[in-house]
Amino acid sequence: MNLLTILVSTVFVNNYVFARFLGICPFLGVSQKTETATGMGLAVTFVITMASAITYLVYHSILDPLGIGYLQTLTFILIIASLVQFIELVIRKMSPSLYNGMGVFLPLITTNCVVLGVTIINIQDNLTFLDSVINGLGASLGFFLALILLAGVREKLELADVPEALKGVPIALVSAGLMSIAFSGFSGLV
Amino acid sequence: MENILYPILVLGGIGLLFGVLLSIASVVFKVEVDPKIEEVLEALPGANCGACGFPGCAGLAGAIAEGKAPVNACPIGGQKVADNVAQIMGVNAEAVDKNVAVVLCQGSKSKSKDKAIYEGVQDCRYEAELADGCKACPYGCLGCGTCYDVCDFDAIRMVDGVAVIDKDKCTACMKCIDICPKKIIELVPYDNEYIVKCKSEDKGKEVRGYCDIGCIACKLCVKNCPEDAFTFENNLAKIIYDKCTNCGICEEKCPTKCIWTSNEKDQEAAS
To answer: Which of B83, B105, B183, B256 could form a disulfide with B141 if both were Cys (CB 3.0 to 4.6 A apart)?
Structure first.
């Protein structure tokens, strides 16, 4: 498959948040301000892309040859959690400014379903190594986009005249639903 | 046998590998943390309000331990916290210059004119976006109470369409200052009695047209101040708080009474 097609497809058409409904927890939890949404988005992008590459290698060089593919969920969680810990240690040492920007969000995404979802879908769809990495990158960029969009909407919503019963999370959920419908307009693009 | 052995070996192996890698990494990439940081953090209030200008209490603790921030940098904790932090750092706490927020507008409904009637969402940020708000004065308090809503310390009251801050309850957390769309809330020293409570940069004639209690740029306060403690820019007098000796001459001379003592009369206005 063409790499560009994969990228466009995962960012817009099969957006992991709007079309597959993965990663809803951080999507709603960290979308109150565009600033924190950016930090979270960067952290997720970094982790998913790295995790896609490493889980591909582990699955195809260890799990698959030994015939224990059924252990992938367990193994992937282990890999992702350790990877995130490792990345956190490294950037804390290497770049304190980057750590301040996205460090606090890293522990939050160790067990995020979108990270696990992407790595498992990579294996299910029989993607090659490069395709997996691009798929991971596209998925996380799509997540980033969704997060930033919702954060922008929610910042405006704070000033809007929302009925008392819908204030806060309810109106955010309604907005998210409407955005999901809007994104379905992309289907058929690729 | 293989069916059981391989999964155990593989998972155990991967787990062990990552465990060893992480423990090596934690040594290799160890960041030296000053033990003082932890102690200072303990002494701080832990509210993570951000009023000090650092990202949370941990950020301030780091800055204090490195000597980049004074021991009394926490505006919430006051003298008590400053003393504790000073003890940890081994220096004497200087007396804290306590600041409080003050709304620099007294244009209440009875004293100022409106150019329109506003019936939208009761939120100053929203009103300010619509033609600068309904008040005829472009610098005045809109009176929707957005600062009242964000105040965690119950220090702000709305009195006849203008926000008034109780200086004994104010902790200078800056929340109202950040949220006010008109930028008319400022920090002033707690001990300062006299404040020019107006932000209008219009000429005197215009100010007289829409407000009974605004600064009309007559400069009487500037001319009569014995300490020379005034600046005058853009048709607006401002007290230099360091020089002010609280003599009260400016208040006597001010024809519109927009120079007010900071607390007593606010209390009267509220009651």
So the answer is: B105
